[in-house]
Amino acid sequence: MEQASERPLVELRSVTKSFPGVVANDCVDLVLYRGEVLALLGENGAGKSTLMNILCGLYRQDSGEIYVRGHKAQIHSPKDSRRLGIGMVHQNFKLVDSMTVLENIILGIEEQKFVPDMKKVKAEVLDLSHKYNLKVNPEASIWQLSVGEQQRVEILKLLYRKADILILDEPTAVLTPQESHELAKVVHSLRAEGKSAIFITHKMEEVMKFSDRVMVLRKGAVVAQTVTEATSPAALAKMMVGREILFDLDKKPFAPGEPVLVLRGVSALDDRGLPALKDVDLTVRAGEVIGVAGVAGNGQRELAEAITGLRKVKSGEIRIDGKDITNKSPLTVIKAGTAHIPQDRSSVGAVGDMSVASNLAMKQYRRKPLSFGIFLLPRRIAQMARRLIETFKISTPGPETRVKFLSGGNIQKTILAREIGACKKLLVAVYPSRGLDVGATEAVRKQLIAQRDQGLGVLFVSEDIDELVQVADRIAVMFEGRIMAILDSTSCDEETIGLLMAGVKTP
Ligand SMILES: Nc1ncnc2c1ncn2[C@@H]1O[C@H](COP(=O)(O)OP(=O)(O)OP(=O)(O)O)[C@@H](O)[C@H]1O
Ligand SMILES: [Mg+2]
Predict the structure, then answer these.
(1) What pTM was estimated for this model as a whole?
(2) Percent of the chain having pLDDT more than 90?
(3) Which of 62, 406, 433 to mutate to test the pocket of ligand 1 (most atoms within 8 A of CB)?
């Protein structure tokens, strides 16, 4: 823990970094002491990842100084930062898919002069894996691993390199609540050994659980710093956004219409060929939000994919607006009026090399008013882009900026805006608020309800029971590929949902 007399382990002094059109870090001072966890908070685009990328040598600050263990540090490359004991798990992992866990762990260690002794590496990795309870098969290829396992590999990689200053950039955004809980234990045991960590998250409860101190960035500058014990989730949210966040939404009573989505006896397999959906019956009507609750991995992803044409079903029938779309192509499903906010946003979500405007128009350019015959109407596209950027508060220098230059959360907002903007009948939203800051999360929830009020059917997959109760009209609870029950959100209690999620049938 922090001691007033102790010398900081890491100190940033007045670090500033600009990109064309934005000051990402504005005279930031930061200190990190040995054996503490510092939570770094801020809205999407506040400059958190940029600041950490400077510390780990991916970017170079325009001005300002960095001190590590009391000495001024020149960090020009990731190698420099590694030598100083700094290691980072990035917001988007940087593992090589086709290589094994072990190969990834030794990848890029320049210091080695000889072919590494894989037996020794393996023994050492297994040792670390055991010691920190980071379970993973060292011989497996990365593509075979779940996201949670990939993250363990990233952490093992840092530990193998003996990093004692760990930077974790939104490590829990992609984890299930159980996996997050496991990670909390890992972080605590690292801290107990005297290692230090900077932990980025958008979830206030995690700040309270993981950290000793908190620092809040807004528009690139430090706006608050406090000891975690002295603050609360509501106070933190306010510091970040600069206004009160209403964790309550007012919602009109729902008046459902005709069914827009009907599933009858749908079964499907997962990627490994095992049953993922078992005889699922579900109806979503116009003007209602059906929440899908469940621990990740119980068929939610496959359900969304089957509906949107991304996964073949083995048996059963799916209808959208009366039309049979079972095993039809994704394009047919889109034409039937469906929009999909996918779980895996990095591969199917946005095209990094295209502009924000083009990404926003991607789903609608084939029809009026964005095109006329074979002609695209750029002015209309720009107009629509500006409107969506405004509505969804996408923080970007402009509509022409390439998506890969946006912050993680703003890339996600771009996908959300595109999908919600293009939706005609049915919106399938899978963990839509992952990686979003509290303000944007509030906005997404409001949008889902607004779509429902306009008469769309919404299927909303989430792991957050509070969020489901707040937003959904009815909640379907999934367990091992089946729907355990469909509950009325106004009358159900969280305990019942929790039990059903764990596979316990209630009367
Ligand atoms: N390589 C880059 N080129 C241009 N602009 C960039 C680049 N990297 C970041 N930016 C801009 O710098 C600002 C800060 O981005 P950063 O990724 O640090 O935000 P963040 O706080 O990590 O947000 P999030 O919570 O969404 O991940 C944003 O406006 C972003 O668009
Ligand atoms: Mg970021």
Answers:
(1) 0.81
(2) 50
(3) 406
